[in-house]
Amino acid sequence: DGRKTQMRRPIKPQPFNGASDEEAIKQIGGLPAGRSLYQEINSAWQSRFIDINCPLGEPGDLLWVRETHHLSHQNKVTYRADYSSNPFSEDECGEDCSMVGEKWRPSIHMPRWASRITLEITNVRVERIQDINGDDANAEGIQSWIDSFKSRPTYHQNSNLGGYPVTAFSRMWKSIYGAEGWDQNPWVWAIEFRRVEQAKVAA
């Protein structure tokens, strides 16, 4: 629905081998006046003084999104996210035609031709995961945690809920990387992107 325009991934290996900010500042011999460690690290990476490449690409690169899907005998690919579908030809599906009629296929098995969403990277920066703010958490597509009394967490899109979007994001992050993946406050790639119309991609 266009709500998600950012994503974050841990940097591997971690700058300074995962050292704390205080230890990292010592390693670089202190900070220039008025500069933060984040600014120094980000500037160093942007200037290629840090030889670590973002695995997802650079500004201008295109990414195609994989989704859980189903290939039907009616030559349609259906997307489980919203149950919409697109037609396809046998020329397009090639060897994947043998999968027609199977159950829902995991996103990791989606072929390029079946993808309906293409993203263009617009910005890449380096930061600590806990530096994320409410606007960034909302841009991650997260929804604010508003009901802790139900058996399953309920989220709600509302940018006026202060720190709640960050709380919701931290819970999501921990569910993927474990509690230590948040508590250790690792350096991450913060990647911004925009959706590209399929007609422009084909051109």
Describe the 3D structure.
With 203 residues, the chain is of the alpha+beta class. The protein folds into two domains: 6-62 and 118-198, no CATH class; 66-114. It is built from seven helices and nine strands; from the N terminus they run βααββββαβαββααβα. The chain has a four-stranded antiparallel β-sheet. Strands 3-4-5 form a three-stranded antiparallel β-sheet, with no helix packed on it. β7 (144-147) and β8 (154-156) form a beta hairpin. The chain starts with 5 loop residues before the first strand and ends with a helix.
Overall pLDDT confidence: 80
Number of helices: 7
Please describe the biggest sheet, giving its number of strands, its sense, and whether it closes into a barrel.
Answer: 4 strands, antiparallel
Can you tell me the residue ranges where pLDDT is under 50 for at least 5 consecutive residues? 144-162
Categorize the overall geometry: elongated
**Spatial extent as radius of gyration:** 20 Å
Structural class given helices, strands, pairing? Answer: alpha+beta
- Tell me the fraction of residues in β-strands, as a range: 15-25%
Helical content band: 25-40%
Query: H/E order of the elements?
Result: EHHEEEEHEHEEHHEH
Strand order of the largest sheet: 1-9-6-2
Total of domains = 2
Separation of termini?
23 Å
Number of beta strands: 9
Protein name: Morphogenetic protein
Q: Could you write a compact summary of the structure shown?
A:
The protein has 203 residues and is of the alpha+beta class. The chain contains seven helices and nine strands; from the N terminus they run E-H-H-E-E-E-E-H-E-H-E-E-H-H-E-H.
